[in-house]
Design a protein that fits this description.
mainly alpha; binds protoporphyrin IX containing ZN; organic acid binding; 7 helices; single chain; Globin/Proto; 142 residues; 0% strand; transport
């Protein structure tokens, strides 16, 4: 679970990157389908899955929007993302292994954005936070 210090680091980084959130989300999603091509099946209804695809960019922006909500409700992520948890479990049926793959590409995109400011400590806090989000998005599966 997240320590108070982790939460502080997450909020601090979010304040810094939120103006670029859509861009970071687009980059993370573009990386996801290139680096882990098995994830493409979930987006097969998109006309274009290339890194410059407007649909990939728009979807990445939505994902980061939800992460922003999770940051705002960081003391109870399960409540902050409950609607999305239902959507992923009942409608989208995304295999939960994919949440780890997206967390990985998101960390890469954060690192590329923050450069040297992406310290090991911030890396750790965000890795834990993305694992909390993944757990929430998978908790309704059975
Ligand atoms: Zn998801 C959708 C978030 C992961 C797949 N998503 C979605 C949305 C959001 C999200 C916000 C929108 C909703 C509405 O519209 O209502 N996700 C998210 C997050 C995460 C995720 C936060 C983590 C972190 N997903 C994911 C993964 C996958 C997915 C991993 C796979 C691979 N999603 C998805 C899909 C969809 C979604 C497919 C639908 C899309 C369309 O548009 O169609």
């Amino acid at each position: 679970t997240l320590s108070d210090h982790d939460k502080e680091l997450i909020v601090k980084v979010w304040k810094k990157i939120s103006p670029k959130a859509a861009q970071i989300g687009g980059d993370a999603l573009a990386r996801l389908v290139v680096v882990f091509p098995q994830t493409k099946i979930y987006f097969s209804h998109f006309a274009d899955l290339s890194p410059s695809s407007p649909q990939i960019k728009a979807h990445g922006a939505k994902v980061l929007g939800a992460i922003g909500e999770a940051v705002r409700g960081i003391d109870n992520v399960s409540v902050s993302l409950s609607k999305l948890s239902e959507l992923h479990a009942y409608n989208l049926r995304v295999d939960p292994v994919n949440f780890k793959l997206l967390a990985h590409t998101l960390l890469v995109s954060l690192s590329a954005t923050l450069g040297a400011e992406f310290t090991p400590e911030i890396h750790l806090a965000w890795d834990k936070f993305l694992a909390v989000i993944a757990a929430v998005l998978s908790e309704k599966y059975r």
